[in-house]
Amino acid sequence: TCPSLSDSRCSSMDQKTPENSSRASSPSCSDYENFPMVPTLETSYLARAGKNEFLNLVPDIEEMRPGSVVSKKGFLSFMEPRSNSWVKHFVVVRRPYVFIYNSDKDPVERGVLNLSTAQVEYSEDQQAMLKTPNTFAVCTKHRGILLQANNEKDMNDWLYAFNPLLAGTIRSKLARRRSGLMKN
């Protein structure tokens, strides 16, 4: 657990015990006594971070390494939100991440999606409403991304790479629908 930087815990941080000094710790309160107090409204939030007014943000860091197995790679079209036009990007799925490049020769990742925190959505109603075939969406905490594959088989392959459970559900629905049509 991270020690709090509030004044109420300063006295406990000043004490250097073998247990405290063996762990990584924040600087003691005496280190910050020489900083002048800054009026709250006159400076920006981030500018106050180095002063006596500390940010109350504690990072939650979890290291997740992408798998060495490439589930799928190829081109997908991304809907650009400002222009409402489709732009092709080269995409590599290495679960739990999706790496986005401008082209297959691009050495720099232009974007990364974490599939463990994103939601993949597919709906035939959505495709009908958009009047655009072979589309699906990826929703993150910060935004939604509309993607389009080249054809239906390619879209199913991408869906399987992004979310195997969703792709299996969609395939079973399609198979039931086709078997129902054959019986009639």
Automatic annotation (TrEMBL):
Alphabetized Gene3D superfamilies for the sequence: Pleckstrin-homology domain (PH domain)/Phosphotyrosine-binding domain (PTB)
Stored Pfam families: PH (PF00169)
Region (Disordered): 1-30
Top-rank lineage group of the source organism: Eukaryota
CDD domains per record: PH_KIFIA_KIFIB
PH domain segment(s): 69-167
SUPFAM superfamilies per UniProt: PH domain-like (SSF50729)
The protein, known as: Kinesin-like protein KIF1B
